Amino acid sequence: MRCRCGRTAVYHRRQSGQYLCSTCFSKSIHSKFRKTIRAYNYIKKGDTIAVALSGGKDSTVLLHLLWDLQKDRPFEMAAIIIDEGISNYREKTIGAAVKNCNTLGVESHIFSFEQEFGITIDACDPNVCSHCSFCGVLRRYLLNQKARELGAGKLAVGLNLDDEVQSVLMNFLRGDLFRFGRTGPSYTESPHFVPRIKPLRTILEKEVMLYAVLARIDVDHSVCPYASEALRGDIRDFLDSMESKRPTTKYSLLKSYDRLVPYFQEQFTCPISLCSRCGEPTVGTVCKTCSMLEAIKKMKER
């Protein structure tokens, strides 16, 4: 098939029926990325952006797109890399993350669970909570804390369209209406939370992957050994099946959710206080991170 420009197509965008060559496809990704930036006023001239960088395709593509955006909209940028302590996996992804930062000349900062909390994901007791739950809570905690300490005004995360709609369904199926209102394009709960921005939220995961290949971006394709534990995998399979039959499913779900977000944020809000133990923001007296670490400590003492 031929692209609209006459060149040989490398991708069929089923949602629109377009056949795109490598050049037109890459331009379309840049266009979607910048349209999202403009739509939500994510980045202004002079901003300081911390990028949550794992070394995988999504966060690495985000890093490159943000670096390219700096040519037209000057802002400061640094990468935060979290070492969760997953053997035979995290070493490779961190290596890829640092390599990309060095290539682009982006300052990087590496923080580890072991140094900050005295524990690794591998050492996490599944009887307390799943590895994925433990990792998610501590990772979000550390990204927010370090972004704030580095003076960043915003935290850019590489969540793509698939990630967004998976989270929407997960929170809905769990009946977690408070978290359901936090999955929108941006969410700021208190001055202690660094606002999160999601410039890739309208781009399909497979398109992020193809862009990385066509742009020759060095990413690590390793899969976390604990990924099979997560509910997200089941939700991903369901949505992929629906998307295969009805190619606009994911876009439609995200669009519908975005229209509901303001109502959920208005109706389901919790007052934010500071954790009595660590001083980080929480909706209760003790934050989830401190609660998990305390539970693990007690389990070890037994």
What does this structure look like?
The protein has 302 residues and is of the alpha/beta class. The chain has one domain: Rossmann fold (3-Layer(aba) Sandwich). It is 48% helix and 11% strand. The chain contains 11 helices and 9 strands. A 5-stranded parallel sheet has the order 5-4-3-6-7, sandwiched between helices. The chain has a two-stranded antiparallel ribbon with strand order 1-2. It has a two-stranded antiparallel ribbon with strand order 8-9. A hairpin with a 6-residue loop joins strand 8 (273-274) and strand 9. The longest helix has 19 residues, at 131-149. It is globular and about 70 Å long. The N and C termini lie far apart (65 Å).
SSE run: EEHEHEHEHHEHHEHHHEEH
The total of helices stands at: 11
Query: Major sheet: order of its strands?
Result: 5-4-3-6-7
Query: What is the radius of gyration?
Result: 20 Å
The description of the largest β-sheet is: 5 strands, parallel
* Estimated share of beta-strand residues: 5-15%
Q: How many strands appear in the DSSP assignment?
A: 9
Spatial shape: globular
Compute the separation of the termini in Å: 65 Å
Weakly predicted, low-confidence segments: none
Structural class: alpha/beta
Here the CATH topology equals Rossmann fold
* Number of separate structural domains: 1
CATH architecture: 3-Layer(aba) Sandwich
Within CATH, the superfamily carries the name: HUPs
